[in-house]
């Protein structure tokens, strides 16, 4: 059985060879599996793609793609999925945090008949910010996408070819692969794996990139719009009842003065609410415009061994 290992790469010149060669050593002990690598360079400013080309020269099972600009991790994964030909496709990182030593554990779990298996970390080696955003993503997926609470996701996963063939039909410019997996199957498994320390460098995710990644959920649900509608109805009802209360109070106590501070507070509250709702609607409209303008999911500059 052929396993395609898809790795999006960014600033990986110093570490990608270690990832590939350590993974090869693991597969040498797995007699039932063959392997290939699909390495996608997301327009790294260092020598990542030349190193991928050297790996492709050394190992025929290594395939490489270079993108014309930085499209983002999940766009790079989608590019890799389009070039993967394996019966199973595994997603890994380029920094050895998703360590090759855990591959047999994930493959064993996959043999139970799942469409997707995630390697879930017993304890995370990430920093506080990344751990918080991971928690936020997990809660958002449960609330916005209806994901079961007992299902956890990570960037260490394996899927079947059948699921991959459905995922690559999605051509929107802003993909989120874990959300796509969850939309297409409910046969999702988790298995505990070790999360290793990053051996080189630091995370390429800034706060802005993490927020952008979280906003990708808006492509897969209309729940924020429904929430905005519900809040609007509740606030309108409160305003109507408050208005009646003011009229009644004025009739009972004619000399009462209308409070200027309370009026300002009400106005600020309503203006803030309106801007919030407009912002949510704007996110959806922006996604529609960019999709209608055929914004590319990724653009390939060069390929090697493909």
Please outline the major beta sheet: 8 strands, mixed
Mass-distribution shape = elongated
Low-confidence stretches: none
Give the CATH class of the largest domain: Alpha Beta
The tally of domains stands at 2
Total helices: the number is 10
Average per-residue pLDDT, rounded, comes to 83
**β-sheet strand percentage:** 15-25%
Q: Look at the structure and name the CATH superfamily of the largest domain.
A: Spore Coat Polysaccharide Biosynthesis Protein SpsA, Chain A
Do you know the CATH topology of the largest domain? Answer: Spore Coat Polysaccharide Biosynthesis Protein SpsA, Chain A
Instruction: State the secondary-structure class.
Output: alpha/beta
Order of helices and strands: EHEHEHEHEHEHHEHHHE
Give the N-to-C terminal Cα separation: 20 Å
Number of strands: 8
Measured as a percent range, the helix fraction is 40-55%
What's the Cα radius of gyration? Answer: 25 Å
Task: Tell me what the CATH architecture of the largest domain is.
Answer: Alpha-Beta Complex
Spatially, the strands of the biggest sheet line up as: 7-5-6-4-1-2-3-8
Structural overview:
By secondary structure, the chain is of the alpha/beta class. It has two domains: 2-202 and 296-304, Spore Coat Polysaccharide Biosynthesis Protein SpsA, Chain A (Alpha-Beta Complex), CATH 3.90.550.10; 223-292. It has helices spanning 16-27, 48-58, 73-83, 103-110, 128-144, 161-167, 177-184, 207-215, 223-252, 260-292, and strands at 2-9, 34-41, 62-67, 88-91, 116-121, 157-160, 188-193, 300-304. An eight-stranded mixed beta sheet has the order 7-5-6-4-1-2-3-8, sandwiched between helices. It is elongated.
């Amino acid at each position: 059985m052929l396993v395609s290992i898809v790795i999006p790469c960014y600033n990986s010149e110093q570490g990608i060879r270690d990832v590939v060669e350590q993974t090869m050593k693991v597969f040498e002990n797995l007699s039932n599996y063959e392997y290939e690598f699909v390495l996608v360079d997301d327009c790294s400013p260092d020598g990542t793609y030349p190193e991928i080309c050297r790996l492709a020269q050394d190992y025929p099972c290594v395939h490489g793609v270079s993108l014309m600009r930085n499209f983002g991790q999940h766009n790079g994964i989608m590019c890799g999925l389009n070039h993967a030909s394996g019966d199973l496709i595994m997603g890994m990182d380029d920094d050895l945090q998703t360590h090759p030593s855990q591959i047999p554990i994930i493959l064993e779990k996959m043999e139970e008949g799942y469409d997707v298996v995630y390697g879930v970390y017993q304890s995370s080696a990430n920093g506080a910010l990344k751990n918080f955003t991971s928690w936020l993503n997990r809660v958002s997926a449960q609330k916005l996408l209806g994901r079961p609470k007992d299902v956890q996701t990570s960037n260490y996963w394996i899927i079947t070819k059948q699921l991959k063939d459905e995922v690559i039909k999605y051509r929107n410019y802003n993909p989120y692969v874990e959300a796509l997996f969850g939309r297409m199957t409910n046969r999702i498994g988790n298995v505990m794996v070790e999360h290793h320390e990053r051996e080189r460098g630091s995370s390429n995710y800034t706060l802005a990139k993490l927020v952008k990644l979280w906003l990708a959920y808006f492509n897969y649900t209309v729940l924020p719009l429904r929430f905005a509608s519900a809040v609007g109805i509740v606030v309108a009802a409160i305003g109507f009842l408050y208005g009646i209360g003011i009229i009644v109070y004025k009739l009972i106590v004619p000399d009462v003065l209308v409070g200027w501070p309370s009026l300002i507070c009400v106005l600020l509250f309503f203006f803030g609410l309106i801007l919030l709702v407009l912002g949510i609607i704007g996110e959806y409209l922006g996604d529609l415009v960019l999709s209608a303008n055929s914004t590319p999911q990724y653009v390939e500059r060069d390929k090697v061994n493909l």
